[in-house]
TrEMBL record, chains A, B:
Pfam families, A to Z: ROK
Substrates-to-products reaction catalysed: D-fructose + ATP = D-fructose 6-phosphate + ADP + H(+)
One GO MF term attached to the UniProt entry: fructokinase activity
The UniProt record lists the keyword GTP-binding: no
Protein's UniProt keywords contain Protein biosynthesis: no
Entry cofactors: Mg(2+)
UniProt-listed CDD domains: ASKHA_NBD_ROK_BsFRK-like (cd24067)
Protein's name according to its UniProt entry: fructokinase
Keyword list, A-Z: ATP-binding, Carbohydrate metabolism, Kinase, Magnesium, Metal-binding, Nucleotide-binding, Transferase, Zinc
Coiled coil: none
Sequence similarity: Belongs to the ROK (NagC/XylR) family.
PANTHER family given in the database record: FRUCTOKINASE, TRANSCRIPTIONAL REPRESSOR MPRA
Length: 291, 291
């Protein structure tokens, strides 16, 4: 019996089956088109296996309130065809097993805590910087939900004094996502990040915003470990610069050796690498089984 | 048998005994002078009663890590005489009962959740705006600690374009506390807040900063209830303006009726009024007893 896992993204779905120790046994990828078409592939994939639980880490916004009548739905997403899609309901119809459902970034945070860079901690953040910026959080051993779920990618940031870019978030213009997501980089500099590798000013500015945001998260959530992944972070020069700005912005206020002396082990890459998302969904399945 | 409670502040200590339902039976207040002198009064007060547990909500920074050898200490406080004071150790010597120890604002958050404005929720923030700005948080039913404890009063804020005040935080100059605490108001306008009641521009600017900060907290922690107390909030025109700015800064991004339709019941005054701190310490005692 396997754990089933879905990493449901805006452009692709990754489906996998794996073991209790987070090892992926088989995986397949489908493009995100319509719910009908994509889900047909998903269901077909899982029908090959005997499953004991399923975990879904999904793009959002999604309804995570178990007492809500739309629990398990994708809600007001800009991907219109997926709006009001009953994700958990659809999976339950075909697979009568426990189903864990959470945001893609919460899933990744859980996976990193179980099997990755945050192993042994009681709290961590998983941040992804790519098409959007999302952050999942574990606090006192539990995934953070609250009223809805965090939307940390949309916190306001203080502008760099030399940055004249207007920002590209449709809600807030120059919030973090509006200033530092992949599309923001492309819009500001006229080229994709991957084509700007040697332009130090690009990554210095990017680090200014990401380091600032992480400093805000530290002041607000005080996590034991911060994991940063996503396409934009593939620029290897970026993470060290981000760490430098985290320290700059905190300016000695948080007196803790994790920050003052061991920042390289405090703000880190995903221990599960590019598997953080799908292993996170496996972790959700495992958690659902235990509940 | 009573619950004992200490609200340990930088200028005064409030000691009380109370019941399991949060009712204060007797209380006394002592100035915060030296640890020797103040603690003598504290111990003398509690020796009059039979106690089953004690809760301490303390100014900080404090060490809350139970596996640390300085657990229960006040650590690097600017109040030099209290630096490295073993608060829990000193109380334990005289009262061999379970002792709960947390930040003053975490205590207040717990009290408000048990008996006040956040009753029935699973997550809340308690924010106090006075000499400093502090915030305590309950997430998924538990007090948020993490690496250290949150220091949400020190998040960066975006300046109001017409505000030329440099800020007064010794670490960050113009962080939230540096721009919106009681001393910041006094330094910016040359008068104490209490003497500025009729100056609408003062409270509009104050609401701009507090509303902005609360919007950041909502994006990061997604609490079910936000409670705002402290001396500065005694200005009755302030809270409605703060709510207005919360909505402005979120700009429709968080689609939840609690914010869009019921902000008056979402960002609220303490249900326990001026007793939030001392009842919070009672709540810590109750929690310690249950552990």
């Amino acid at each position: 019996m396997y754990l089933g896992a879905i990493e449901a993204g805006g452009t692709k779905f990754v489906c996998a089956v794996g073991d209790d120790d987070g090892r992926v046994r088989q995986r397949e990828m489908f493009p995100t088109t319509t719910p009908e078409e994509t889900m047909r592939s998903v269901i077909h994939f899982f029908q090959q296996f005997e499953l004991k639980a399923i975990g879904i880490g999904s793009f959002g916004p999604i309804d995570l309130n178990k007492s809500s009548h739309t629990y398990g739905y994708i809600t007001s997403t800009p991907k219109r065809k997926w709006e009001s899609f009953n994700f958990v309901g659809e999976m339950s119809k075909h697979f009568p097993v426990p189903i864990g459902f959470d945001t893609d970034v919460n899933a990744a945070a859980l996976g990193e805590r179980l099997w990755g860079a945050a192993k042994g901690t009681n709290s961590c953040l998983y941040m992804t910087v790519g098409t959007g910026i999302g952050v999942g959080a574990i606090v006192e051993g539990r995934l953070l939900h609250g009223l809805l779920h965090p939307e940390m990618g949309h916190i306001l940031v203080r502008r760099h004094p030399e940055d004249g870019f207007a920002g590209c978030c449709p809600f807030h213009n120059d919030c973090l996502e509006g200033m530092a997501s992949g599309p923001a980089i492309e819009k500001r500099w006229g080229k994709k990040g991957a084509e700007l590798t040697n332009h130090t000013e690009v990554w210095e500015l990017e680090a200014f915003y990401l380091g600032q945001a992480i400093a805000q998260y530290i002041l607000t959530l005080s996590p034991e470990k911060i994991i940063v992944g996503g396409g934009v972070m593939k620029q290897t020069q970026l993470l060290p610069a981000v760490r430098r700005y985290v320290i700059d912005f905190l300016n000695g206020y948080i007196q803790h050796e994790a920050i003052l002396q061991h920042i390289d082990e405090y703000v880190v890459r995903p221990g599960l690498g590019d598997n953080a998302g799908i292993c996170g969904a496996l972790a959700l399945a495992k958690q659902a089984l235990g509940e």
